[in-house]
Write a structure and sequence with these properties.
heterodimer; A: mainly alpha; globular; B: alpha+beta; Thrombin, subunit H; seven-stranded antiparallel beta sheet; 36% strand
């Protein structure tokens, strides 16, 4: 495993831990693992992204115990779709739109999973996740995929 | 020794003293914070003990070990299981005696607790004195469904429940909003829960 992949694994493990410990309990409405997977997909090759997406989707399913394989399928599909979009669209703006698209798909999938249309909660999830993703990208971007400051995803 | 070197030595001494005082200040602040946390915890345990003695119920104090990683579910894992006599279906309350959730899965030394605002949570409850309905959890709002339209439900009515095994009622929340159901047969009521954040409060399982 290369240093770059090891860094991605470390970041995803930290995010997964944050999701299970929830230091802000339910005041912060976001899923760090999902954001981490999207970040990796936007900046790593398809093979690596798909590998991490599947592994962490499986971890999440194993801990949730009641989702069958929802996260494994969703994260893998997100990885493939993000790379498909990245092949056709380029630039910062495209990456931002792809992130918003992935976030919206995640919200829709989870609304179906809980069989309930949650409007306020979904809106809060969207806002909190966008802000956290921006912060994660600023904080980890340079270390994770070595791009100069100000030139990463957002 | 010249005046300037004396002054320099004095400044260095002052800097050291300031550094030491800053360290002491930090240690004292942390100690004070720790004492405040312990005092808060003590207060909560006193409240729980008062609730236990007042209502004459058998309770077990538990702690949250971890949360379900999905934000779309309100499930927590607690550090106690069959080893302390827990079983599925038991209810959890906070230190004030307000409903927090119910046990859905119990293993040997850990259990899964479903919080009241989980989308799959449901429980028959009373509203006020004599109305009955089905409490359903939700991420946006916790609701009570299937209340007879002829029932006299008012805003701020207390929502509570009691099972045959309990000697006293357990309070859940109060009526926040009353809506008429689309089919016109029932009332749907939005509930403001009494218990809010599970992490900052001790959890107790009523046996």
């Amino acid at each position: 495993m290369t240093e770059r992949n090891l860094k991605a694994l470390t970041v995803l493990l930290i995010f997964f831990l944050l999701d299970t410990v929830k230091p802000f309990t339910y005041s912060l409405i976001t899923e760090f693992t999902f954001l981490g997977v999207v970040l990796i997909c936007l900046n790593y090759p398809l093979k690596t992204s798909l590998f991490f997406a599947a592994i962490f989707g499986y971890f999440k399913d194993a801990i949730c115990n009641d989702t069958s394989n929802l996260n494994l399928l969703e994260f893998s599909a997100v990885a493939v779709l993000i790379h498909y979009c990245l092949r056709n669209f380029h630039g910062k703006a495209a990456k931002i739109l792809i992130f918003f698209g992935a976030l919206t798909a995640h919200i829709v999938a989870n609304n179906f999973y809980i069989s309930e249309a949650t409007y306020l909660f979904s809106l809060l999830f969207f806002i909190h996740s966008s802000v956290i993703f921006l912060l994660i990208n600023r904080l980890f971007g340079q270390w994770l995929y070595g791009e100069p400051k100000g030139d990463n995803v957002i | 020794m010249s005046f300037s070197s004396q002054r320099l030595a004095l400044t260095q001494n002052s800097s050291k003293t300031i550094e030491e005082l800053k360290k002491k200040n930090l240690i004292l602040t942390l100690t004070l914070r720790k004492s405040q946390i312990l005092a808060d915890e003590n207060e909560k345990l006193r409240k729980a003990l008062a609730f236990k003695e007042d209502k004459k119920v058998e309770m077990t104090g538990v702690e949250i070990a971890s949360f379900n990683p999905s934000t779309w579910r309100r499930l927590v894992i607690i550090n106690t299981g069959k080893d302390k006599g827990l079983r599925p279906g038991l209810f959890a309350v906070d230190s004030d005696g307000f409903l927090v959730g119910k046990l859905v899965e119990v293993k040997n030394n850990f259990s899964r607790l479903m919080l009241v605002d989980d989308p799959e949570f449901s429980l028959p409850v009373y509203i006020g004195n004599d109305s009955l309905g089905l409490l359903s959890g939700g991420l946006d709002v916790v609701k009570i469904q299937y209340i007879d339209i002829s029932d006299n439900v008012k805003l701020n009515d207390i929502v509570w429940f009691k099972t045959s095994l309990m000697s006293c009622p357990v309070y859940v929340g109060r009526v926040r909003k009353i809506n008429e159901n689309k089919n016109g047969l029932f009332l749907d009521v939005d509930v403001q829960l009494f218990s809010q954040n599970p992490l900052v409060k001790k959890i107790f399982i009523i046996k």
